[in-house]
Amino acid sequence: MVDERDFWIVSQLRKDPFTSFETLGRGAGLSGNAVKARIEALEKGKIVSSLQGLPAAQVFHRFPRLFFFEMPSPVMLDDILEIDSAVFATQDVDRKVGVLAYNLSNAAKPPEELVDLLGPIEFDVTPLLPYPQKELSKPVTIAELRVLRMLVSNLRVPIKEIAESTGLSQKTSKKIRRQLLEDGLLQVQPIFQTAQSYGIIMYELHVHSGDNSVLFRIRQSLPKSIFLNQWDPSAMIFSCWADSLAEVFETQKKLRSEPSVSRVLVKFHTQAILSTSRLSTWIDEEILRLESNKTKA
Length: 297
What we know:
five-stranded antiparallel sheet, single chain, 11 helices, alpha+beta
């Protein structure tokens, strides 16, 4: 039976994906094995399909932009991720599609390939997480990229495996892994699906407000939710769960009545997919570029 502790565990893993099951268990009043079993049950129930590592667009000298398409023709998410700039895509029960693109240009307009495939956009925003600035404060090193590549393939890969694969010491590997997360070069992206397994309904909540203090208060107090991202900075996204549709829309109604809240959107994702292969390829290309520059120097 899924309960509040399951989603507390996921929220803690999003903040610190490298913490041990034993540490999580102490916070939840469970054993490490019980925590592991709960995560496996969430995956088996198709509520949480995975926890993925999403590098910041700036690592690749690109610019993040999130596009929402109104009512596209039936399309496979795999087709969307064939487009070079697309790294993450979702589809809702009403067929609406969201695409996170890492563009080579800072221009706000969507890539032509996406418009050709999905039609005109409904709206678009700039994600402020994981990295809030347009450009990195300092260049990413080859060692950081090698560790990042391992985390994109498997977010919870053991430090020993990272060290063996990268040629770094375990101490250095652990330090770089931690720094990538703290510096905002890596974001933990829980891949949630709309699900009613065990009576739980998963949904995504978008809250818009011109008052950042209102958004911050909602982030701190919204029950049954995991904070995911902030946009522009006029909106926040949450992954939420409820026991019934009535509870979902009661939450929506309550937030709409909040002063300074301009829009509240509820989205039920039927599919969500991250292009780990593209991200890994970009990391490999960046490593080769830095190695080539190093050789020339």
